[in-house]
Amino acid sequence: MIRTWKVMRFCAKTSVSIQFRRQFSVLSCAQQRLSTVLYAPRGSRTIEAPEQPQASASSDTTSSPGGSDVASEWAAEDELLNNRKNIPNLRVSELLKDVPRTKRLPERDTDREGNRKPATHKKTAIEKDTLQMLQHRYQDPCESQERYDKELKVRYTILQTNDDRHRDLMMLIGSRKARERERKLVLEGRRLIMDGCSAGLRLEAIVTSDLKLLPELALKPWPKNCPTFLVRRQTMMEWSSLTTSPGLLGIFAEPPNLTELVTRNATGSKRLPVTVVCDNIREPNNLGSVIRSCAAVSAKEVILLKGCAHPWDLKCLRGGAGAHFRVPIYGPIEPYQLPEHTRSGSIFVIADNKKAADERNGFQWRQYDRIDYGSADHVVLVIGGETYGVSDDIRTLVHQLTQTEAEAVPDRKFVAHIPLANGVESLNTASALSIILYEMRRSMLQAEETA
């Protein structure tokens, strides 16, 4: 094993200049003793190259050819170290001239002619996977196919996502504004489609996810010029407004005269002189049930004030179960337009259980079955949502109407109260309305029989 002192004695006796790399090893001590470049501490040496030894006749006294290069490298390192210590006269660009460039230079933003190139966005792996999934989902390479079922004797179309008709149906089903613009109605489920056909609406298209559901419609004869589209089950679930899609959608044309259609469907039933005013009923299902109860009692009309759900919403149509085509519906309208739908001598009944014995603005608080509905020629029943009830603005408006008109009926303003038991605070809007409407119907028919 060669010891350190032997190496140092050998280097001292020999006349050959040995160049060592700077490293943390046993030879670093000998290198610092023999090399004149390393006399000064790191960071304080100058960049001048060390003096070359004088040439001698003997070849042993000549230095190695790479000595000056090593000294220049050490000088460059010391200069960079000084620059890191915020020493002025920074010359990093000059020091890096001879450094080989291993990285590729970025592309220029302009071409040879000086025109600016359009910026290109490099997609990440996640963006590529998302784009591929969307292309597979919404850009089906297959085309729609026309087929004929011999057992059902129905010609249908297997609708693909890249078809324009697929896009039109998706917009029509998902947007109420699109339905109003195209004057179309969408009914979902076998029962609603059959109710629409029995009401006299014109069926324009049927969308289904299973051909076995078509015989359940029992449309005889099958409507002419009515295309049938077959879509995927997943697509039908996305279009449906229900948690579990029934698998059938019917596209109907909006009738040109809805009042005429309602009058034709109500032939043979006597209309009660009752106008139902809905105030701030925001739930479409509840509003559909309200319209259904009004059609069942055969009320004269239903008026929706601004703030209620839209009567032609898909959920409201489903809650109505075809009642939209059997009772006149107006609105939503502004409250100041309400006097146009009332008559002189009418009595006003507000269904509200919020406060006990509430007789503000001259209203009389009574139970719903102790009001004489048959003593008036017309009854205006105002009902609000279950949460907020009838607003104070409507109470004020009714008070103004009863003050300006002639007092033909002495008692014209009532607050109908429905007694509840077992700690129940309120009833559903449609349930409360049904109770009061059928009590009105009983009282009016009894008054007619007595007269």
TrEMBL record:
The UniProt entry's sequence similarity note says:
Belongs to the class IV-like SAM-binding methyltransferase superfamily. RNA methyltransferase TrmH family.
Q: Which CDD domains match?
A: SpoU-like_RNMTL1
Domain MRM3-like substrate binding, which positions?
175-249
Q: Which Pfam families match?
A: MRM3-like_sub_bind, SpoU_methylase
* Ranges where the record places region Disordered: 45-71, 98-124
Mind listing the GO biological process terms from this record? methylation; RNA processing
What are the alphabetically sorted keywords of the record?
Methyltransferase, Transferase
Every tRNA/rRNA methyltransferase SpoU type domain range: 274-438
Q: Where is the signal peptide?
A: none
Q: Where is the composition biased (Low complexity)?
A: 52-69
UniProt xrefs under SUPFAM superfamilies: alpha/beta knot, L30e-like
- Protein name as catalogued: Uncharacterized protein
One GO molecular-function entry? RNA binding
Q: Biased composition, Basic and acidic residues: where in the chain?
A: 98-116
Mind telling me which InterPro entries this protein's record contains? Alpha/beta_knot_MTases, MRM3-like_sub_bind, Ribosomal_eL30-like_sf, rRNA_Methyltransferase, SpoU_MeTrfase, tRNA_m1G_MTases_N
